[in-house]
Amino acid sequence: MSSCFREWELPPQLREWNTLSCGLIRGGEDREQRIIGWFHPCVALRIRPISMAELEEGATLIAHKVDDQMVVLMDPMEDPDDVLRANRSREKSYMFDVAFDFTATQEMVYRATTKGLIEGVISGYNATVFAYGPTGCGKTYTMLGTDHEPGIYVRTLDDLFRAIEATSDNMEYEVSMSYLEIYNEMIRDLLNPSLGYLDLREDSKGVIQVAGITEVSTINAKEIMQLLMKGNKQRTQEPTAANRASSRSHAVLQVTVRQKSRVKNIMQEVRVGRLFMIDLAGSERASQTQNRGQRMKEGAHINRSLLALGNCINALSDRAGGKYVNYRDSKLTRLLKDSLGGNSRTVMIAHISPANSAFEESRSTLTYADRAKSIRTTVKRNLLNVSYHIAQYTSIIADLRGEIQRLQRKIEEQGPRPARTDIRRIQGDCR
Ligand SMILES: Nc1ncnc2c1ncn2[C@@H]1O[C@H](COP(=O)(O)OP(=O)(O)OP(=O)(O)O)[C@@H](O)[C@H]1O
Description:
By secondary structure, the chain is of the alpha+beta class. It has 14 helices and 20 strands. Strands 1, 2, 3, 7, 8, 9, 10, 11, 14, 17, 18, 19 and 20 form a 13-stranded mixed beta sheet that branches. A three-stranded antiparallel beta sheet has the order 4-5-6, with helices on one face. Strands 12-13 form a two-stranded antiparallel sheet. The radius of gyration is 28 Å and the shape is elongated. The site of adenosine-5'-triphosphate (ATP) has 17 residues, from α5 and β16. Pfam families: Kinesin. InterPro entries: Kinesin-like_fam, Kinesin_motor_CS, Kinesin_motor_dom, Kinesin_motor_dom_sf, P-loop_NTPase.
């Protein structure tokens, strides 16, 4: 099984961090970011098992994994038994960093896509993993999973805390998480829904923040999982014809890790890594889902934001063409700005059904996933430079010392201080 990153090892550019001649960007007075290189997203494809409903409809299989990286999609209108068929133009093969079919376990998907990001995150790099694809194709299964087959959220958090534990003799960590959903273009805090709808703000360094979101600090995987499960119960899910428990919102789990050395020194740095794990709502065809009323309205919002995401992917993958990337079209793309074309190692896991009835959705998902491979992101280490503050205080202290010396000199120049009686006499003169 090939993988995006080698297990427990940093990707080559990250490993070469110490030897690379890095660019140094001052991202603000107290924040430095060191560029370590360009990256393309890791794009994985998962073909879920055929469902009972599809079997009952007499579905045939049209999507196949050929090897660890190649997937073939056949046009269902073509007769596979016709040996004379000359026109196979609509049968297409796609190459990905890694491909999975119904035989793949949750552990295999996690190891090949996400596990390799953890070491970077605890050392101050940003990373994003997102599940993409049509409704009912297995995104929530991959990200959240089940009690028996936990998905990427649980496995990542388990390994993240294990990695922290392994280096905690030398390093001090602070981990916090937030969990939100974007439902009908509105942001809701899943850890504290009573906060109402939240706004997106861009800080002075261009980093997108959700104003007022609950950030829970913890260093305990079990505690995070309990919060996640609680938050997930708040997520908007409804039965649709395509999926009995269809997620009607995009769910974003953000884990922030701050790392600093236990050895206190004057040049101490705090490294801040952010990991986004995103379970997108599924794209859907109104005709297939038979949605009406509220479900149809939700579907329109979902499709609109996924279209905005698709447009960003298109524009970003055509950098040579100099296309403008419009992140502002939806909350989803604004939130994913850094993950898509900015400072992040990004993994996209596209999902499709193997059935002939899903041909059009599968084809467009494969096309988007294929385009996403040519996006480039610039990965930088995020440093909150404590030494900057120390330098500031040192220079303030030096200034104050200089001022004291100047005043002392002035007093000395003015001669000895008048005695108390002289002061009384001076006051008397003034009256
Ligand atoms: N790889 C898989 N192995 C076993 N079951 C799967 C797999 N992928 C999906 N399923 C099952 O298929 C059904 C639909 O999956 P899921 O809810 O994850 O789809 P989704 O893409 O998140 O859908 P939506 O966009 O509507 O929320 C679920 O019952 C899920 O358990």
